[in-house]
Amino acid sequence: MTRRTGSSIVRVAASGLLGLAVLVGCGGDDGPASAERPLTSEESAMLANALFDNVERGGATFSLAVQVGDGATINLQGEVDWRAHRGYAQVSARNTEQGVREVFWSDDAVLESRDDLAPLLEQAGLPPAPWVVRDPDPVGRQLDQALALVTALAAEQRDNPLLIEQEPGSAFVRTDTLRDVPVVVLRYGERAVYWLAADDGRLLRFESDNETNTRPVVFDVMAFSDVTIDGPPVDQIVDVADLGELYDAALAT
């Protein structure tokens, strides 16, 4: 699953994507059990290992909900291969990214299954195909920002626990329960909240929001799995360049 131009998804820190901040008010299965306080060295170490642990585990099935504007949301349900930086998701969007049903993505390509693809291909005089491939656009496309967040929730190196502990805003938030699993809820800086399993520190949820608490993001790991995501066969894909201005016009509607 590659794109010939070789451009890549911007690998950004999960805490910085979309200008997001903390979502403290979203609880788990039970109510909070503790008050906020500074991180201990053990808790800083848990945070430092969380994203590296995702790479070690390989991949996951996930759910992502993003508020991207007033009345505009993107929801993804799918799988991610953190080692290969690839993913697949079903897309449900409201008042944004109209027409996208499914996506495959990698560092250098996004493949869309679209409601309007068949008439676009017909207008362009192209044979039917279920997928269109294009370069990632994490600056201009809200969907691609969400995909970049999923990819960015893994790191090939552990963070420095001391730097995490010293980062303004880092804190123990509370203990809680998520999907019947006891968790420790920890904040890294001002804008990233991690729900980590109390027994082994695995990431179960990532939350964020902007400074005015109007753009919440919730990413849930439903299950870790060593997935392989190859994408559809080449003969089922059309290049967005072959659609010319028809594709841009479809986005504008």
Instruction: Determine Rg (CA atoms, Å).
Output: 19 Å
Range of helix content: 10-25%
Alpha-carbon distance between the two ends: 28 Å
Order of helices and strands: HEEEEEHEHHEEEEEEH
Question: Helix count, per DSSP?
Answer: 5
User: What is the averaged pLDDT score?
Assistant: 88
Sum up the structure in keywords:
elongated; 12-stranded mixed β-sheet; 253 residues; alpha+beta; disordered N terminus; 5 helices; 12 strands; outer membrane lipoprotein receptor (LolB), chain A
Sequence-ordered SSE layout with sheet pairings:
Blueprint: H1 41-57, E1 59-69, E2 72-81, E3 86-94, E4 100-106, E5 109-114, H2 117-123, E6 131-134, H3 142-152, H4 161-166, E7 171-178, E8 181-188, E9 192-197, E10 203-208, E11 217-224, E12 237-239, H5 245-252
In brief, what are we looking at here?
This protein is of the alpha+beta class and 253 residues long.
If you had to describe this structure to a student in words, what would you say it looks like?
By secondary structure, the protein is of the alpha+beta class. The protein has a single domain, classed as Clam (outer membrane lipoprotein receptor (LolB), chain A), CATH 2.50.20. The protein is 19% helix and 34% strand. It contains five helices and twelve strands. It has a twelve-stranded mixed beta sheet, with helices on one face. The radius of gyration is 19 Å and the shape is elongated. The chain starts with 40 loop residues before the first helix and ends with a helix.
